[in-house]
């Protein structure tokens, strides 16, 4: 697998605009139980793709040693705030980008701790593919897959939120308790498969299993040598991602962009969201729903570096917006729409509510649901 950095692959700088990037785009979310290595796998992917350099890695190494967290060298690429580094857990959803010759990727690194499930839900609503990271280390897989573990809950939540493609990344296969043991691999695959099938995943067509070492970068970009693992003859993690095709894009429909966040930068208002349908172009007029304010798109960013004049469905975009004069005019959960075909606000809707867990000896009371758009986190 030939990976190249963005600057090597596309000769653009942020002051030069391209019409569009012809490659497909995938948003991938890394989910799973706490301490199973999600952030390490994300950081290693960024490093192997050339997105981060050796100097940044050395800086992370120094800071990790100072905090007594030597194993968090790669995790620090996305776990960047002081609280996350001090506690040694992911809290906010990390966002990063990398690319191959076949595709461009937006990475969403979700927290694995039970206390931050709402953050994971918000990220999963934007994803095309879920990367369920499993620790093969003795005892860790069992803890994550137990009734109170996040392996089960995250897999169910991702499917409920419409993420149909799943890559099960069996991490830490190089651990001394595993040492690339096929019996351990067979055990994990054997226990997960019926659970994922019962959850609703199409095991044959939409679920892939891949063994890796996140810390050493084995089988993540390039396929591993038979000397490392003689029994696995499948593709590497990134090669599996390159083969995934999303067929339900809607380019011929009106523009729909649920707003997930808003920031101010350099005197500009930037809206962040995923294009659910339609083709977006620079200079296009949009309507903000529900307050029916007319705005103009003055800039389209598909990553943290490059500006484009056009974006397709499935893209996670950052849009420079003109026409917003007050913070309350654009909020998370609002919708950016084609002015000719705005989203119609409804007073009621039908919903399927999935109950994952109920406290023992307590009556379940449903109070209310507050929903701005279908992918909002509902209370």
Q: Would you write up a description of this structure?
A:
There is one protein chain. This protein has 379 residues and is α/β, with parallel strands linked by helices. 23% of the residues lie in helices and 23% in strands. The chain has helices spanning 6-9, 38-48, 54-66, 82-87, 117-124, 140-145, 150-160, 182-199, 203-206, 237-243; strands at residues 17-18, 24-31, 94-99, 103-109, 129-135, 165-171, 207-211, 256-265, 268-274, 280-281, 285-289, 293-301, 307-308, 310-311, 316-322, 335-337. Strands 8-9-15-12-11-16 form a six-stranded antiparallel barrel. A six-stranded mixed β-sheet has the order 3-4-2-5-6-7, sandwiched between helices. The chain has a two-stranded antiparallel sheet with strand order 10-14. A hairpin with a 5-residue loop joins strand 12 and strand 13. The radius of gyration is 21 Å and the shape is globular. The chain starts with 5 loop residues before the first helix and ends in a 42-residue tail after the last strand. The model is unreliable at 1-15 and 367-371 (pLDDT under 50).
Write a brief structural summary.
This protein is α/β, with parallel strands linked by helices and 379 residues long.
Proportion of residues in β-strands: 15-25%
Helix share, percent: 10-25%
Helices and strands, in N-to-C order? Answer: HEEHHHEEHEHHEHHEHEEEEEEEEE
Strand order of the largest sheet: 8-9-15-12-11-16
Roughly how many Å is the radius of gyration?
A: 21 Å
Q: Oligomeric status of the shown chains? A: single chain
Structural class: alpha/beta
Task: Tally the helices.
Answer: 10
Instruction: List low-pLDDT spans.
Output: 1-15, 367-371
The separation of the N and C termini measures 43 Å
- Approximate shape: globular
Number of strands: 16
What is the overall pLDDT average? 80
- Specify the biggest β-sheet: 6 strands, antiparallel, barrel
